[in-house]
Amino acid sequence: MRALDIDPVHDTRETFRALVDATSRPGTVEQTPTTPAVHAVVATLVDHEVTLHGGGDELRTTLGRESRLDTAPFEDADVVVVDGHTDGRVTVAKRGSLKEPSEGATLVYEVADLSADTEPIDGDDDQTLTLAVSGPGVPDTRTFGVDGLPATEVEAIAEAQSGYPRGVDVYLAADDRVVGLPRSVDLSVASDVPDEEVA
């Protein structure tokens, strides 16, 4: 992983901790030890037993050199790296089964920016959203900002997560930040949530 400026011991350990925190506290913005976060996340999640779809050439070349690259089509991959959006194809990613829900895919979206809801984002107004999550690990409703994720993709993610315990797990990654959206949460654009429900 050093070709990606990632220490294979220290940085992957710290990234794993960030992913655990992001998953246990959905909608919080956690920090990865290296940039870009998408490289750190994928390097932490993927090994020779985990199939991958997508990812840039540099990432895939590095994984290949370390015999950690086992590719699969979008609908069969364990980890899918997404540049911004899937045009709604997230709904055909693996969702696992009632017996083995853990076999659902993990999608890592590379987005333009992420922020806690108290931090403004300067971005494309058409793709700068405040998202709301609720469910396990979230007191009431938690909101956060994302730039570079279309509202239609948010709807598609929510659909792919609607059959809990089946579904997909999602991480949004930008710069050195990551937000976790496990399949257990309810996700929406915050403007669709009544004001009294947003905390």
Automatic annotation (TrEMBL):
GO BP of this protein: organic phosphonate metabolic process
Protein name: Alpha-D-ribose 1-methylphosphonate 5-triphosphate synthase subunit PhnH
Species, as recorded: Halogranum rubrum
